[in-house]
Automatic annotation (TrEMBL):
Protein name, entry field: Polyphosphate:AMP phosphotransferase
Domain Polyphosphate kinase-2-related positions: 11-232, 262-483
Annotated PANTHER family: POLYPHOSPHATE:AMP PHOSPHOTRANSFERASE, POLYPHOSPHATE:AMP PHOSPHOTRANSFERASE-RELATED
Originating organism: Pseudohalioglobus lutimaris
GO molecular function, one term: polyphosphate:AMP phosphotransferase activity
């Protein structure tokens, strides 16, 4: 693959200046044009050590307005990053819409180096490539312009570049270990690099391989590739893909027995028992460094809040974080809709409880017309991919939907209005949503059908009796943790 790209034609200083000046002006125009759109620009600069990646990034910041660019560099993972799924550190650094993020060192660096050094098997490396493809497709589907530059140099050029910089490194060493190529692994690194590029070369997010032997050629070529990629993407920016036709969903809610109930004495006895067990399991998960992510969804007035309180009262406050999801802020709207959930994930061994979650995209945003049909249809796959990424890291995922009848919801709404200390829980929006019960019911059934997976199954909780629902949830959490930990 690396011998099938435009060969280096060294540029003289005069030739470089003649091409660079108009290129710089057009890049600035393109950058200012992006600022007026909903497209974030992500530039990945990758390649072997000694290829001039850092110099190129300096040049790009010089040619464009650095106020609209954030350059991200990645070396070793911090303890905080190691305690979360692999892609967490990159989701946190994604540029908002209209801005540019340059990634010098990226989601490619760790799997490539680990594979070169034999710390990542062939199967695991292939899996990493597939996860990267999914990540980039999700961002691109949401409007991101992803430009991936691979800078290639020969073994001789690399050796010369690294040896020339060796004295400087001794005075001001880099934060990383010595490049693995210096230990006689150039050919191995080259083979892995070709495997990496082939495994992540997609029509949606292609690689651009640049001969980096000559600095001037490298910089001009990279600038031209970036400019061309921006213009081509913006040219077709309004071409929306047709929504995928989804199969008819089974009526999962109709199968729920809403008559189940507990008397208060039995409830108190079971609550003490299962809360005690949940407390022990939460500490065992901490000792095993296994995270727990719980999702609570349900009808308005279904009792999510009271159920969550019974769960959190059983877990040491140091071990959990409750995330209450409302309408997205302007900052959150400027990102992929999953961004705000990724950044809330707690460290290994802790519990993250979501009071409403990423499922809002396929329920309220779908029914209320806040997401297009193409967006919410695509979200089913993206949600499954998110949860797969969590479970592949070792995270335990538990999802609850609390189901109640329309009559029970009406009774609870009326009770809230009658009690001064509960009136804040009922709004005009709650009453309006009741009128759309059939639409929500269809969306919920389809959500369950599309996102009920072996590793992240849905637990549909009969909620007409709050006491029964609370015990059902805590007991299910205990069983889920026991299955994962023992």
């Amino acid at each position: 693959m690396f011998d099938q790209f435009e060969a280096n034609t060294p540029l003289s200083k005069t030739e470089f200046e003649q091409r660079a000046l108009p290129l710089r002006q057009r890049l600035l125009e393109a950058q200012f044009g992006i600022e007026k759109t909903n497209h974030p620009l992500i530039i990945v600069v990758a390649g072997l050590a000694g290829a001039g990646k850092g110099v190129l990034v300096h040049r790009l910041n010089e040619w464009m307005d650095p106020k609209g660019i954030e350059t991200n560099t990645y070396w070793e993972h911090s303890d905080e990053e190691e305690d979360r799924p692999f892609l967490w550190r990159y989701w946190n650094k994604l540029p908002p819409r209209g801005q540019i993020g340059i990634f010098l060192g990226s989601w490619y660096t760790h799997p490539a180096q680990a594979h070169v050094d034999g710390r990542l098997s062939q199967e695991a490396f292939a899996g990493a490539c597939e996860r990267i493809n999914i990540f980039e497709r999700q961002l691109s589907d949401d409007g991101a312009i992803i430009i991936k530059l691979w800078l290639h140099v020969s073994e001789e050029t690399q050796r010369r570049q690294l040896e020339e910089h060796a004295p400087k490194r001794q005075q001001n060493p880099r934060v990383t270990d010595n490049p693995y190529e210096l230990r006689g692994k150039y050919q191995r690194a080259l083979a892995v690099s070709e495997e990496l590029v082939r495994g992540t070369q997609t029509l949606q997010c292609p690689w651009h391989i640049i001969d980096a032997e000559d600095r001037r050629f490298r910089e001009v070529k990279a600038g031209e590739v970036i400019l061309d990629s921006i213009n081509r993407r913006l040219q077709f920016a309004n071409d929306e893909e047709p929504a995928t036709l989804l199969p008819e969903a089974a009526d999962a809610l109709a199968c729920v027995n809403l008559d189940k109930c507990l008397d208060r004495s039995e409830y108190k006895r079971k609550l003490r028992k299962h809360q005690s067990r949940l407390q022990d399991l939460a500490w065992e998960a901490y000792r095993q460094r296994r995270s727990l992510v719980t999702v609570f969804e349900g009808w308005d007035g279904a009792g999510k809040g009271s159920a969550i309180r019974r769960v959190t009262s059983a877990i040491d406050p140091r071990l959990y974080k409750l995330i209450q999801i409302a309408a997205p802020s302007d900052e959150e709207l400027a990102q992929h809709y999953l961004w705000r959930f990724w950044r809330k994930l707690q460290r290994d061994g802790r519990t993250t409880l979501f009071d409403r979650s990423w499922y809002g995209r396929v329920m309220v945003e779908r029914v209320e017309g806040l997401a297009s049909e193409e967006e919410w249809t695509r979200a089913f796959r993206e949600i499954n991919e998110l949860e797969s990424e969590l479970t592949s890291h070792g995270t335990i995922v538990a999802k609850f939907f609390i189901h109640i009848s329309q009559d029970e919801q009406l009774a609870r709404f009326q009770a809230r209005e009658a009690q001064p200390h509960k009136r804040h829980k009922i709004t005009e929006e709650d009453w309006r949503n009741r009128e759309k019960w059939p639409a929500y019911e269809g969306a919920i059934n389809q959500m369950i059908a599309q996102t009920h997976t072996p590793l992240a199954p849905w637990h549909i909780v009969p909620g007409n009796d709050k006491l029964y629902a609370r015990i059902h949830i805590i007991k299910t959490l205990c069983r889920t943790l026991e299955k994962a930990l023992y």
